[in-house]
Amino acid sequence: MNNKAEPIKYAELPTEFSYEALEKQRRERIFTFLSKGLIDEFTRLFKGKNVLEAYAGRGHVSALLHEQGINVKSTSLRLGHDGSSALGHVFDVEDMDVVTAVHTYRDWMDCLLVCWPTTDPGLYKALNLLPLDVPIVFVGEVTDYSVSPPFLGGCATDEFFDNVHSNEEMTKELKYQPVGHQQLKVFNRNEKIKKSHEFSLDYFR
User: How far is the C-alpha of 19 from the C-alpha of 179, rounded, in Å?
Assistant: First the structure.
């Protein structure tokens, strides 16, 4: 871990959306708009559970969860866009991709948290390693082909969304939704993962 900056504290989070808060968070390379409402929702969902965060970037979300007493492990690759190399981490972020993270912690975790996962195939590939009963708490954009023109989200891949379904029980409990195009969703992986024409799953067999 490379600590060069202090994490944003819960007390500093906004209670509602503002462009000033958005710009401040963007300077910290935070792509999920963090508010007290979102962290309160996470805290309620994750109370008493072991949470694995993948695509954690600099670790701001994990740091906030840890501040709220949540047992969380934070993982991410060092990527240029998230500022982790230039600005450093604000939490103990393990340098690993989502496939390695799920493989390493599958027996430990109760929930997988992904905030603005990139459009690489990793999250789709990790599904075959994810226990069926481990929910995926997802924050980000979701592609929607039902509208015209289609809304092409900037998170995960079509292969990922084609191989998960809504966790209805946890979804009914949600009391908060992020602003803008980003959505808060709870998924579970499908029992049978469809093989992608582009990416091979042979690695997991």
Answer: 12
How many helices and strands in the chain, by DSSP H and E? 8, 7
CB 30, CB 60: distance < 8 Å: yes
What Rg value do the Cα atoms of the chain yield, rounded? 16
Task: State pLDDT tens for residues 157-187.
Answer: 999 999 999 999 999 999 998 877 889 999 9
Q: Taking each helix axis from N to C terminus, what angle separates 36-46 and 60-67, rounded to the nearest 10 degrees?
A: 70
51, 58, 64, 146, 189 from 85: Cα distances, Å = 24, 9, 20, 39, 32
pLDDT of residue 180: 78
Which residue, 81, 71, 93, is CA-closest to 2? 93
Pair 125, 99: CB distance under 8 Å = yes
Using CA atoms, how far residue 3 sits from 30, 60, 88, in Å, is 16, 12, 5
Contacts of 35 (CB under 8 A, 6+ apart): 13, 14, 15, 16, 17, 21, 178
Q: Quick one: pLDDT band at residue 198, thresholds 50, 70, 90?
A: low
Burial class (CB in 10 A: 0-12, 13-18, 19+), 122: buried
Which tokens in the block code for residue 61? 């979300």
Peptide bond into 149 cis (omega under 30): yes
